[in-house]
UniProtKB/TrEMBL annotation:
Organism from which the protein derives: Pseudoxanthomonas winnipegensis
Keyword Flavoprotein: yes
Superkingdom assignment: Bacteria
InterPro entries documented for this protein: AcylCo_DH-like_C, AcylCo_DH/oxidase_C
Protein name: Dehydrogenase
An annotated Gene Ontology molecular function: oxidoreductase activity, acting on the CH-CH group of donors
Flavoprotein listed as a keyword: yes
SUPFAM superfamilies: Acyl-CoA dehydrogenase C-terminal domain-like (SSF47203)
Keyword terms: Flavoprotein
Domain annotation Acyl-CoA dehydrogenase/oxidase C-terminal: ranges: 187-301
Length: 334
């Protein structure tokens, strides 16, 4: 552990997530964490099982998988850093996105973090700890932070869209929150697990897309309307291709866990992003406008997925792939 003040080390394990309240998300998250305290680690031989679990959560609810994936990702990051497993009654988030409003800094002398961090997601009071990239000595190391009352406040007032509204997201305001640095300053971005975890996000998207596709598959219109059946056939082809790519990538990661597999991960994320968009468009065409106007669960899932897949960097990633491919030979040989 780098730059930690030992007087605050135990404080990181004091706060456990709030067990009060009866909203569905909080209750469902608590139950899942009790039933499955951890998932197989990426690169540990069961990467596909991890992604299957994430896909199931994604098919059930994107706000649910948003919270659970972050928690399981945090556990994997801590394990990759050689840290002990946190207490089972804690729930973790990972906040590493930046932005123009970011001011969060780590004070090594005090072992505290203060400032603003954009793009923080998770119900306040449910999330007990977070792994956060912070400014320290002209670098952006990862800090483990306790989200204690009075030391952290989430301002989600600027979130205006309908997508992912079930998970509060906005600026995190830290005020001398107890913290310690995790591993080396460049650990978060340089570890292989950074890319392996990015592929896990694609599994979340994939799961939600299968739930939307299932809505089409069950539609009576498939047997009555040839265009509806054609859209379902196209959806099947897309999802099957994405399924095969995810399975192959999981095998490759397990065979070579120390490799980032950046090229394959980026390719899978770009493809699953496009598949999700195609599935949503075809589902709307196959089911008609009523599905997005009167089926609240389906309409919300589509809005959630539309927002969630924008975690993909789209054409920026495709540009990187194209430039890398330009130097390759035999890229498409069977």
């Amino acid at each position: 552990m780098s730059g930690a003040n030992t007087s605050h080390a135990t404080a990181l394990h004091v706060a456990s997530f709030d067990t009060s309240g009866s909203d569905w998300l909080a209750s469902r998250v608590r139950r899942q964490i009790r039933e499955t305290p951890d998932l197989p680690r990426p690169g540990g031989g069961e990467t596909l099982e991890r992604w299957r679990a994430l896909a199931r959560f994604g098919a059930e609810s994107l706000p649910l998988v948003k919270v659970l994936e972050a928690h399981y990702d945090a556990l994997a990051i801590l394990a990759e850093a050689g840290e002990p497993r946190p207490p089972v009654d804690t729930l973790w988030a990972v906040w590493a996105a930046g932005g123009p409003t970011e001011t969060v800094r780590y004070d090594a002398h005090a072992g505290r973090v203060s400032g603003i961090k954009p793009w923080c997601s998770g119900p306040q009071g449910l999330i007990s700890h977070a792994l956060v990239t912070v400014a320290h000595d002209d670098r952006r190391p990862l800090a483990a932070i306790t989200l204690a009352p009075g030391a952290f406040r989430l301002d989600a007032s600027q979130w205006s869209g309908p997508g992912m509204v079930g998970v509060p997201t906005g600026e995190g305001h830290f005020s001398e929150a107890a913290a310690r640095l995790v591993s080396a300053p460049e650990f978060y971005l340089e570890r292989p697990g950074f890319w392996h975890g990015g592929a896990g996000i694609a599994a979340c998207w994939f799961g939600a897309a299968t739930a939307i596709a299932e809505r089409v598959r069950r539609s009576p219109g498939v047997s009555k309307n040839p265009f509806c059946a054609a859209h379902l056939g196209a959806i099947d082809a897309q999802l099957t291709a994405a399924q095969l790519m995810l399975r192959q990538l999981a095998r490759d990661i397990d065979r070579q866990p120390q490799d980032s597999h950046r090229y394959a991960v980026t390719r899978v994320r770009c493809f699953v992003d496009r598949v999700c968009r195609d599935v949503m468009e075809r589902a709307a065409l196959a089911l008609g406008p009523a599905s997005l106007c009167t089926d609240a669960e389906h309409a919300q899932r589509c809005a959630d997925l539309q927002a969630f897949i924008r975690q993909c960097h789209g054409q920026r990633d495709e540009q990187w792939l194209g430039e890398a491919l330009h130097q390759a030979e035999g890229a498409w040989t069977l």
